[in-house]
Amino acid sequence: MKGDRLLRGFLYGYLGLVFIFIFAPIVFSIIFSFNSDRFPTIPLGSFTLRWYETIWQDPDVWEAARTSLIVSLSVAFMATFLGFTTAYTDYRYRFKLKPLYLALILLPPTIPLIIMALAMLAWFAKIGLSGKVLSIIIAHTVLTAPFAMAIIRLRLSQMDASLEAAAWNLGADQWRALRRVIIPFCRPAIISSFCLTAAVSFDEFAIAWFISGLNKTIPVIILEIVTGNIDPQVNAIGSFVFLTSMTLVIIAQVVLMTRQKKEKGNHG
Amino acid sequence: MAEALVEFDNVVKRFGDFTAVETMNFNINEGEFIAIMGPSGCGKTTTLRMLAGLEEPSEGEIRLQGQVMNTVPPHERDTPMVWQSLALFPFLNARENVEFGLQMRGVDAATRRRKALEWLDRLEIGEFAERDISSLSGGQKQRVALARSLVTEPKILLLDEPLSALDANLVIRMQSMLTRLQRELGITFVYVTHSQSEAFAMADRVVIMSRGHIAQIGTPKDIYRAPANRFVAEFVGRNNIISGKVTSGKGKTVTLEGSLGVFTVDLGDNPKPAVGDAGSFVIAADLVHLSVARPKAANTIECSLISEEFIGSVVTLFLEAPDGSEFKVQIQERELADMDLKHMGKVYVSWASGRAHYIGAG
Lengths: 268, 362
Hints:
The complex is a heterodimer of chains A (268) and B (362). Chain A is an all-alpha fold and 268 residues long. Chain A contains eleven helices and no strands.
């Protein structure tokens, strides 16, 4: 009994430490973004919105935010589309080269980012696409499509195998069955895949830094500010990026989980 | 005269090297309740899926109202199915599920709604029309699935083991509902099941399948009392099968001699076997007379009592015949109570030769 309590205490302590190491820097960054002192020191100075005002008035930051928004939304669309179509072909069809087909889409996350970034840079330069917003979109789509595919594939694996045939049986041709049954069934997974791929793209630094050229995204501009000098602006942008990504990730989780909970009640 | 609604004409279905259905020939009549029954893997579900267009026959023709259906895609057929898993759409409520088929046929929203509600009312679940599928009970879901298939007023309804997930009490209630519904609507039901009680309770005719072949087609009573072969005799009911050699034949009866003795059997419609041929007959467990004293009757076997299985008013006794084979007898519980049998005690089973059913060499 006593040993159990000790173990539990230890495990809770461990869990607490993990959370502290993950969130403490973020929390500090948020706190210092409202601090009037130029250097992040304790005791804190007074409360200020000055750093937020500075970035608000900085056209470079605005430009980067615009680029990031365009990129992450386009990436979310394309990656989710690719993810859905691949997951569906995997679910629906059996063909000879399927393992190869699946390996092809699942491969990108296993390649070190820096190598992928370099390869992309070289390739885009060769086909005259370097430094364009489109090139960031393409690179991020390649990077995030596997996540979309994994999420949607998981959802399809939970689907009653007769559901699609039931739609045909009731008079739906293949397209209508896809539109009226498969997509609605996958909707929670599609929404969360959209949010997650948008979040990943919004955050991604390495590839964007290599290939963005003059079309800087938010993470790239953050690095530029930091390399120039120590500036609490970074904390302000960081807080904004953190909030955006977290919101997207939380939406994704909530959408997936409420659906599953509802369907679990189904079998009770 | 009933008209053939569906014709299976030399239908074969192969999956790679595996033959699921082999040279199948039979008709389903208009307005008939037909059950296709057999052990798992016998091809019964494949047969149903071919009818729905989910599988294409490898050979032969399936005709619906005289039209060859082989290559007609499922959505262009009017052969709705009630699925084993029900396959209700979880993201639609009960009424929307029922409306689905009508919507695919381009029926306008108001009519769709009216018809769906009519059917839900008819199946006594009108009050759950706007409920989520996940909040319904097993029986209620079953009714939604039925309403969804019937709302388009088809000529034929396919049912793939629809009651297999329900508990015993509910199965019996759904059975009577299905039979009543089929009679009222007058449409053809094709019901696939592995359950003898479901098939016999509801169907006008039963098709027994074994390894892709049709073993017998007939009314439940025919199949129960006159199994066509050894497979059916073993699959259906509680039957004893006795084999031997034909020693003589007189008119419509033959005499068989086997390891258990000499027996005379009515031939029925069977062709007369030659003397010396191998032959078998079936004697149903409930047609046997059981006695402690040796009876005068000709067809008698002396057995010893091994065990009994009590299932309410009827008891099944498992006996051992002199050659070591098992012999089953079914009698009323109150009859048994009067008999005072002992474990391993000697008993005699006997039957009139008209009770036994000849099944040839099978």
